[in-house]
Amino acid sequence: MSKRFNIWFLALAAVLVSRLIGMALFPFADTTEPRYAEIARLMAETGDWITPWFEPGVPFWGKPPLSFWAQALAIKVFGLSEFSLRLPSWLATLAMVWLVWRLAKQLWNVHAALWSSLVFATMALTYISAGAVMTDSFLALGTTLTLVSFCLVMSGEDGPWRWLFFIGLVIGLLSKGPLAVVLVGIPVVLWLLLFKHEVASLRKFPWWRGALLTVFLVGPWYLLAELKTPGFLDYFIVGEHIRRFLDPGWTGDLYGSAHDQPKGMIWLFWLWASFPWGLVALVGVIASWFAGRGTGRIRLPLSHPGSCFLFVSALAPMLFFTAAGNTLWTYVLPSLPFTAMLIGRWISDMDSVRLFGMRPLLVGLVPVLLTVFVGLTTAGLIPFKTEKELVSYYLQVRKPGDSPLLYLDDLPFSARYYSRGTAMEISEDDWKELRQRDGVRRFYVAVPEDWSDREIAALSPSADKVLRNRRYQLLAIETPVRNLQSASNADGALLNDS
């Protein structure tokens, strides 16, 4: 057992450490990561820990601040970089890996626990989200902590788990809001309906004191957020938690666009998110169904209380989002710890069957593929939707009197982040007014990559194409300077007027 433990521990450590490579090397790509990264950067820069800001003067009401708190704190401690902003998600994933190991060990044995944690860490969505600037990792940490605590307490554990149940709710409510309560409530209620005799064991939890603790830790921020920017509660509670999911074409999103998907798409997202293990398990279920016998046969775990709780916990996010029209594959993440424990138990019992030889390949599949993708992207062999290179070039060549970096009609989030909030979006009418100003030596304007030479010449006959990426061409446009004093103040004038 000691040798096996060492092998699995080293494999798990290698998987988790390999994710650090992409965290440090991979640029932020539009739209999710740089959008959240810029919100965290503004929080660290302004010191406003109550209201996340979408941009100066525009509050971000789409999510509570826990993930932004963690990312802004990482900036304060480690400096501004892709790695520091991604580190909190990696730590949240590390905590979930431990929770998976802890519950699987309690329900079965160390062997099953090791496989469960390894399966969870090498699922596609787990591995990707572990090194991404997202809020979903914190929601999943909260729901996982609450549900693991519930299962442990109901199976006889005592001590801090009774209180960690409520701490998990706090994490969920401060990372994604009331959705956390729903994703926790569905499996708990379903399980109690199946095992009615367990209802009496609910008295093990300090319900009144735990509820007061939750309100004490969560309530002040919600109240302060509404007082500081009135309208937050209506948008966040009603809009984000009711209209978004009931209306597939919901147009109330202030910060992006609705993700219109066919109803039930969340189940296909589960296959994608749990790859390769979910697909392997599904094939195993189908094979067992037709074979009707064999070592690898899978049965629905409804008779054993612990396994049944994992089953309903794994199903809960898909059950909730089945009728929703606005869904993303990241919504599956709270399901994966419990999916992994069920699959890990099955995998751990298959030493004598054909799948045994495939397990190392399955463990390494996602980490190797993503690490290779990171390497190819970093080497420039795979084009990527990021403005890091373009913004870096502008910052290197700009001189006093040059304009801020201007994007015509559309400012990508990655340009906003990498320019530290100085890049500006302008319209063609804005451009006509700006080019008439005195005091700007050179304009830097990013236009769509597919613009023809004729369109560029219409914008300015003196435009010089200095850089090109997947989406934009960067133009340097020289202008005669009639007022050298105003040239030295050009940046400030443009920013203030805009």
From TrEMBL:
<dbReference type="GO" id="GO:0010041">
    <property type="term" value="P:response to iron(III) ion"/>
</dbReference>
<feature type="transmembrane region" description="Helical">
    <location>
        <begin position="267"/>
        <end position="290"/>
    </location>
</feature>
<dbReference type="InterPro" id="IPR050297">
    <property type="entry name" value="LipidA_mod_glycosyltrf_83"/>
</dbReference>
<protein>
    <submittedName>
        <fullName>Dolichyl-phosphate-mannose-protein mannosyltransferase</fullName>
    </submittedName>
</protein>
<dbReference type="GO" id="GO:0009103">
    <property type="term" value="P:lipopolysaccharide biosynthetic process"/>
</dbReference>
<keyword id="KW-1133">Transmembrane helix</keyword>
<feature type="transmembrane region" description="Helical">
    <location>
        <begin position="302"/>
        <end position="322"/>
    </location>
</feature>
<feature type="domain" description="ArnT-like N-terminal">
    <location>
        <begin position="30"/>
        <end position="236"/>
    </location>
</feature>
<feature type="transmembrane region" description="Helical">
    <location>
        <begin position="110"/>
        <end position="130"/>
    </location>
</feature>
<keyword id="KW-0472">Membrane</keyword>
<dbReference type="GO" id="GO:0000030">
    <property type="term" value="F:mannosyltransferase activity"/>
</dbReference>
<keyword id="KW-1003">Cell membrane</keyword>
<feature type="transmembrane region" description="Helical">
    <location>
        <begin position="7"/>
        <end position="29"/>
    </location>
</feature>
<keyword id="KW-0328">Glycosyltransferase</keyword>
<feature type="transmembrane region" description="Helical">
    <location>
        <begin position="360"/>
        <end position="382"/>
    </location>
</feature>
<feature type="transmembrane region" description="Helical">
    <location>
        <begin position="328"/>
        <end position="348"/>
    </location>
</feature>
<dbReference type="GO" id="GO:0016763">
    <property type="term" value="F:pentosyltransferase activity"/>
</dbReference>
<feature type="transmembrane region" description="Helical">
    <location>
        <begin position="206"/>
        <end position="224"/>
    </location>
</feature>
<dbReference type="GO" id="GO:0006493">
    <property type="term" value="P:protein O-linked glycosylation"/>
</dbReference>
<dbReference type="Pfam" id="PF02366">
    <property type="entry name" value="PMT"/>
</dbReference>
<feature type="transmembrane region" description="Helical">
    <location>
        <begin position="161"/>
        <end position="194"/>
    </location>
</feature>
<dbReference type="GO" id="GO:0005886">
    <property type="term" value="C:plasma membrane"/>
</dbReference>
<feature type="transmembrane region" description="Helical">
    <location>
        <begin position="87"/>
        <end position="104"/>
    </location>
</feature>
<dbReference type="InterPro" id="IPR003342">
    <property type="entry name" value="ArnT-like_N"/>
</dbReference>
<keyword id="KW-0812">Transmembrane</keyword>
<keyword id="KW-0808">Transferase</keyword>
